[in-house]
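[step 3/7] fold_predict: job queued, chain A
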Amino acid sequence: MISGKRNAPISILSLFGHLPLERDTIFCRRCGKGHGIIDETIGINQEHRMTKGMIEMATYVAQLLPSFERASEALKKMMEIDMSATQLQIVSEKIGKAVFEKDMAEAEKIYEKPEESVPQELPKNRKEGVLYILTDGSQINTRIEDENGSTWKEMKLGLIFSDRNIIRRSDGHYIITKKEYVTYFGNVSEFKKIVFAAAARAGYGKIKEVVVIGDGAAWIWNMYEELFPDAVKILDYYHLSENVHEYSKALYPDDEVNRKRWVNQVLDKVNNGQVDEAIKTVENSKIIKVSDTLVNLPSYMKNNRKRIEYKDFKDKDYYIGSGPIESGNKVVIQQRMKQSGMRWGLEGGQHIASLRAKYESNKWNDVVNIVNG
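[step 4/7] structure written:
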């Protein structure tokens, strides 16, 4: 069933440019596939006719730079390697697909059998510390229209880190030295699996405290309630503040002095632990004309009553804002996937986002292992 060809010529794209080679090949008549006998030894990927080192380099620049065209220009300028934007897209999305599928398979296993994959320590045996879990969404322009004609779809992003991996600076800012981003271009039923898997890798079940932070979207709180019922749940303070300011504009559209006074009154009460009084202040304020886009602030605050105990949270030294995930959205997703004129396929967008998450999580070795596997 196997026939061979001796000294078959082939041109391989490597980190040193195109290399002409001759090597013996074998061919299977049954499956119709063939390869060189020494391909594995010298690191050739037969499908793309590249060395594994070149495939990794192509994947690296394709996810790092703002577009496939820019990546192609960079390879030409820095390495004198001619590789078209289309070829870069094909190669990088292929590797991104393998990375994504591997992560999803592992997440599925952990989610379906958490008792085996994430054994829980007794509370008294858990390590001191706080595990933070943050999630958010970012709208990406796609080639797919929904029933309303919109081509914008939500890319979900999760960020998981421990307070043991945080350096606090003297100016009050902080640096997260170890973190993991996860992405999903679709519904929450799959996204929650990779969030849970990342939390497990970060020590969920072995760290004493778990804090989850969200912007008030129902899908986020429902996911948190299912996955982390024991967690402290915090409504992002900046989203609350933003909604209070927007509400004040409807209350006092032409009165900036009273607008600022009212905002300060509400937020001061919240920050001082007088949450019920803050809600009453909002309820007692009457808006004559309400915009359809305006958040119903009284209901918003009542529904999140236990999640806006900011004084208590700050006394326990918890973070109360979603700054890290907002920054992550810009770095992981937006700077690569929201350039002018960009439109993504759902699969291609997911595969590049998976590569971006690995890069920004300092887990590029996961990609290297896929390339070399």
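[step 5/7] annotate
Residues 85-112 form the longest helix (28 residues).
Residues 96 and 112 are 24 Å apart (CA to CA).
exit 0
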